[in-house]
Specification:
The complex is a heterodimer of chains A (553) and B (311).
Chain A (H helix, E strand, L loop, with lengths): L3 H8 L27 H19 L11 H9 L8 H36 L1 H4 L6 H23 L2 H12 L4 H25 L3 H8 L4 H8 L1 H31 L2 H10 L3 H26 L4 H22 L9 H14 L8 H34 L6 H19 L2 H11 L4 H25 L4 H8 L4 H35 L6 H11 L3 H29 L1
Helix pairs in contact in A: 1-21, 2-16, 3-18, 4-8, 4-11, 4-12, 4-13, 4-14, 6-8, 7-8, 7-11, 7-15, 8-11, 9-10, 11-12, 12-13, 13-17, 16-17, 16-19, 16-21, 16-22, 16-23, 17-19, 18-19, 19-21, 20-21, 21-22, 21-23, 22-23
Chain B lengths: L9 H16 L16 E6 L5 H19 L2 E4 L5 H9 L5 E4 L1 H10 L4 E6 L7 E6 L21 E3 L5 H13 L13 E2 L3 H10 L4 E5 H10 L7 E6 L7 E4 L3 H5 L3 H10 L6 H10 L4 E3 L6 H9 L5
Parallel strand pairs in B: 1-2, 1-3, 6-7, 6-8
Antiparallel strand pairs in B: 3-10, 4-10, 4-11, 5-8, 5-9
Helix pairs in contact in B: 2-10, 3-4
């Protein structure tokens, strides 16, 4: 049900996204128009860009610091010795609930925002393309304007939203919820509008012709058919929201992220591991839940999950005890006004435009290296991790590989960054490596799922003909999965570009470093300028991945 | 502070409905929020996250107990993990009394008109930073500020961006020695995030040299958690004014006229004459709390302005 391949194309930019790229066995290659770059061209281009990125990020002199291994090893040695005092465990449980509460309410709010905005962003809403040319142009402009407006909030990382919102709402539990809901609401609206446009419009048109208004026609003619895909996407957003809740915690919103970050500041590795284990358990539960939902596409399972989601939402409100009245107080309005005044108009950083450009290039290079590391490691490990192995040895290996992926994505990027910083000399390189390792955990899991859902028959046929296991996999399964793997990688590349801001903390370069510096000096106009540069970088990445995907289709 | 307006939007009422249904179902949640039980206001105290959070919490909770007992109000310690967030929260009225560093204190007062400087520790009038180096980096001990130019070309790390002793004053002294922190180190300078991390990163050799506040350095030396074969002290800076307590502008409104002065008196009364006071002061590494003036931080503000840390 959770059609991740579909999601990655829906979340991409461009007016009309691709039809979901399910691996369809037996589907012949479509002839490609002659001028379009092929897969091989893209691969060569990517290699060139990767080499350029690595050269750009390498520090002068040595790269690996042998002196730091003892610190690195010390951290991992503590995995066997987490802090287990009753008090700390009680705190950890409470922190886990807080993180879940942020994730649940953040998702719920995103879905509400998505539902409200989706129609306004859809081509269906701005159709019909009849009437005078002026009316049509106006409608076209309207569609474009809503899309651009909604693209802005999602270009800003959740952590940046969190830091801005603290200034407006103060110490309010809803800062965490809103910081997730604003960017995720925008992306959900985008995805839901695509779903609307791709749905069967016959019932809607019929209702419209018989005189129904657009709202009621959509409600009765379109929505019912969209419920499964929309629910499936909401669950995927829930997973993303939980990860964001941890990052937000690290900047002070509370929950496991906060606990982890407090232990981190004091280098209390035992306590850090307790939080990491809590994150691992949380991740495992969500994984299982998702897998259970996908298997069998059973509507009853979605019903049960929906009820469970609502119960969680109510419990989350009880746990966080938000005070919505405070949102509408004169103080809040006043502070919001001041923040907007501070941010507008945006300004350039201390070094002017050249500084902003060189930082943007560095961010791009970091994202290229990070996603390359993640995709390469991800493919290798996913092949081992995919469920469905037959021999006991392979099953053990698969289980171990899945745990590796789970641990890798449970440790948040700033923690990876410090760990890498102990063994790789400072600069943007350790930041990129850290982000690569973290993204590997996420991508490896997506890859493993893609491999699991492959049609096993071509591979079995080869094996029966006497081909060794690896060879039959390489020739029968890999080509079929490749489209999806590339699609996931490109989708995650944009997310990684945005996430470079959270590893800026440890002296990693890029726009994140600039943003930290400007925040320390409360230079809001320059912060706004840097955020706009980050949006531009993400847009560039987004357009590039759209170009790659559409030419490979 | 927070008025009980009726929610004005659909979303607002939806959330209110959720809240009410939750209260009826008597679900989860633990201690009360910052508004306290009934109408009694709660005094929220905080501090910048400049050291091991466990010690910070113990120290601030001891102060909370002392102030609660002395002033007969409910006091809550609010941990904040980020310097800039602490300044922002003070500005939004979420924190009443904060123990700031020199720089964050100046930033907080600039962003919060009406905030009052209350007191400082006896050690804050003459505070120092210490430059440290990895033993294998071959950096010789430095005799005076001008000698800091020997750090040019090294891999160097500061602490937090907003730290007075871990970043701003060291940057100022480096500048006096002709070293431009932005361009004269090998690569960009690091910002480790905390004094403790600075020590460990220099000891690991990730950075050849670094700087932190003398208090944390001396504590770690005394605790024996520094490998002195691998990391050595190379220079102590001249003194400057650092940490101090600041009270928010709404404190008198909420606790009654004259409360800010009572708060100041309660802080300055800390001289170690009772066991409780000795515990509080020990946490702060001080023998007494003494008066201070806003003018004491004019130099800090001027340097911050030069370095672009306030605008």
């Amino acid at each position: 049900m959770t059609d991740l391949a579909g999601i990655t194309s829906l979340e991409g930019s461009g007016p009309r996204a691709a039809p979901p790229q399910r691996a369809a066995p037996g589907r012949g290659r479509r002839p490609r128009p002659g001028r379009r770059p092929t897969g091989r061209t893209w691969a060569v281009l990517w290699l060139v860009v990767l080499v350029w990125s690595v050269l750009g990020l390498l520090p002068e002199g040595e790269v690996v610091n042998p002196g730091g291994w003892s610190f690195f090893a010390d951290f991992w040695a503590h995995a066997a010795r987490p802090e287990l005092s009753a008090d700390f465990l009680a705190d950890t449980l409470d922190a886990t609930l807080t993180t879940v509460a942020f994730g649940v309410l953040g998702t719920l709010a995103s879905v509400v925002i998505g539902l409200v905005l989706a129609p306004v962003m859809s081509q269906t809403w701005w159709a019909p393309a009849t009437g005078s040319p002026v009316a049509r142009a106006l409608r076209g402009a309207g569609l474009l304007l809503t899309r651009v407006t909604v693209a802005l909030p999602r270009g800003v990382h959740e952590a940046v939203w969190g830091l801005l919102l603290i200034g407006v709402l103060g110490r309010d539990p809803l800062v965490g919820v809103l910081a997730i809901a604003i960017p995720f609401g925008a992306i959900t609206a985008k995805v839901y509008s695509e779903l609307l446009d791709e749905a069967d419009h016959a019932p809607y048109e019929m209702l419209r012709r018989s005189g129904a208004g657009r709202v009621s026609a959509a409600a009765y003619g379109l929505l019912p058919g969209l419920v499964p895909a929309a629910t499936s996407y909401a669950f995927y957003r829930f997973e993303c929201s939980l990860r964001s809740a941890v990052i937000l915690g690290m900047i002070g919103a509370g929950g496991l992220g906060l606990q982890l970050s407090l232990a981190f500041a004091g280098l209390q590795y035992g306590q850090m591991w307790t939080s990491i284990y809590a994150l691992i358990v949380l991740g495992a539960v969500i994984d299982r839940w998702g897998a259970w939902l996908r298997r069998g596409a059973n509507p009853r399972r979605w019903g049960i999950s929906g009820v469970l989601g609502l119960v969680l939402a109510v419990a989350a409100v009880g746990h966080l005890r938000p005070d919505p009245a405070a949102w509408f107080s004169a103080d809040t309005v006043d502070r919001l006004g001041r923040l907007v005044d501070d941010l507008v108009p945006p300004a350039l950083p201390a070094g002017g435009l050249p500084e902003l450009v060189s930082r943007s290039v560095e961010t791009l290079q970091m994202s290229v290296l990070a996603i390359s590391i993640a995709a390469t490691l991800g493919v290798v490990v996913a092949l081992v991790a995919a469920r469905g192995a037959t021999s006991p040895a392979r099953r053990v290996a698969a289980w171990a590989a899945r745990q590796l992926l789970l641990v890798t994505r449970a440790v948040p990027p700033p923690v990876w960054a410090l760990l890498v910083l102990f063994v790789v000399f400072p600069g943007p390189l350790p930041g990129a490596i850290a982000l690569g390792i973290y993204t590997f955990g996420i991508l490896g899991r997506l890859f493993a799922e893609a491999v699991e859902e492959l049609d096993p028959r071509p591979r079995q046929a080869l094996t029966q003909l006497g081909a060794p296991g690896t060879a039959s996999f390489a020739y029968a399964s890999l080509p079929a999965a490749l489209g999806q793997l590339v699609s996931f990688t490109l989708y995650r590349w944009e997310v990684t570009a945005r996430e470079t801001v959270v590893v800026g903390v440890v002296g990693a370069g890029g726009l994140g470093r600039l943003l930290e510096e400007q925040r320390a000096g409360f230079d809001y106009p320059a912060m706004a300028g840097t955020v706009l540069a980050l949006i531009a970088v993400c847009l560039l990445v987004d357009l590039l991945s759209l170009a790659v995907r559409s030419s490979l289709r | 502070m927070r008025s009980d307006h009726r929610a004005r939007s659909g979303l607002g009422s939806l959330l209110v409905a959720g809240l009410v249904s939750c209260t009826l179902a008597a679900c989860g949640g633990d201690d009360a929020g910052a508004e306290g039980d009934g109408d009694r206001p709660v005094l929220t105290i905080s501090a910048i996250p400049d050291q091991d959070p466990a010690e910070l919490t113990a120290r601030e909770e001891a102060l909370a107990d002392y102030l609660g007992g002395t002033l007969d109000v409910e006091v809550e310690y609010v941990p904040v993990t980020d310097y800039a967030a602490s300044v922002t929260l003070f500005g939004s009225g979420d924190l009443d009394l904060v123990f700031y560093g020199g720089l964050t204190g100046v930033q907080a007062r600039l962003q919060t008109p009406g905030a009052t400087v209350l007191a400082q520790r006896d050690i804050d009038a003459e505070f120092h930073s210490v430059f440290i180096a990895n033993a294998d980096a071959g950096i010789e001990p430095i005799a005076d500020v001008d000698g800091l130019d020997s750090l040019a070309g090294t891999r160097f790390t500061f602490g937090s961006e907003s730290s007075t002793s871990g970043r701003m004053m060291p940057a100022y002294f480096l500048d006096q020695a002709g070293v431009d922190p932005a361009g004269d180190f090998a690569g960009e300078p690091g910002f480790s995030g905390s004094h403790d991390k600075t020590i460990d990163l220099v000891q690991a050799g990730s950075y050849e040299a670094g700087v932190l506040n003398t208090q944390v350095w001396d504590d770690r030396l005394a605790a024996g958690t520094v490998d002195q074969k691998k990391v050595v002290e190379i220079f102590r800076t001249p003194s400057y004014h650092d940490y101090h307590w600041i009270a928010g502008p709404s404190t008198d409104d909420r606790f009654g006229a004259g409360f800010t002065e009572e708060l100041r008196a309660a802080l300055i009364a800390l001289d170690g004459s009772t066991d409780e006071e000795r515990t509080v002061l020990e946490g702060y590494g001080a023998a007494a709390v003494v008066p201070t003036e806003p003018e004491n931080y004019d130099q800090v503000e001027e340097i911050a302005r030069q370095l672009g840390l306030v605008s």
